Amino acid sequence: MIGSAFLIQPASAQTALPARDALTAAQAGRLLLIDIRTPSEWTDTGVAPGAVRLDAASSGFEVRLAGLRLDHPGKRIALIDRTGGLAAGVQQKLAQRGWRDLVIVRGGMLGPEGWLAQKLPIGR
User: Which of 5, 25, 53, 88 could form a disulfide with 30 if both were Cys (CB 3.0 to 4.6 A apart)?
Assistant: First the structure.
């Protein structure tokens, strides 16, 4: 399980993408948006349009993420969570394992700079 093993640490500016930029890149097909929250969080707030739902606490998370990466060559992967802390931890842990070019969505879904604060569209 990936989710519970991470400390909340801020992401650097180079690895955090503003929510509006993530939406634009995803809509243009340049970015694969992965929502790493829990199913109950997806239900509570909805998800970003086109986001792949992949609970970071689920077994096989990293293997499934690697499969998505293989299925979408050339696309940057952006992780979105509740407020940015979990995504930053996952990003750092995977970087230590050789993953490159992972970004997080600044503020996640509920943070002050996040998806909902920017009034971006959501789906169910």
Answer: 25
pLDDT digits (tens, 9 = 90+) for 27-86: 999 999 999 999 999 999 999 999 999 999 999 999 999 999 999 998 999 999 999 999
pTM for the full predicted model:
0.87
- Residue 13's φ and ψ, nearest 5 degrees, are -60, -30
Nearest-angstrom CA–CA distance, 49 and 24: 11
Indicate the SS3 state at residue 102: strand
Locate tokens 């340049």: which residue? 30
**In angstroms, rounded to a whole number, what is the distance separating the alpha carbons of residues 106 and 38?**
18
Phi, psi (degrees; rounded to nearest 5) at 73: -60, 140
Nearest to 36 by CA among 81, 85, 66, 76: 81
For 8, the token pair is: 């909340």
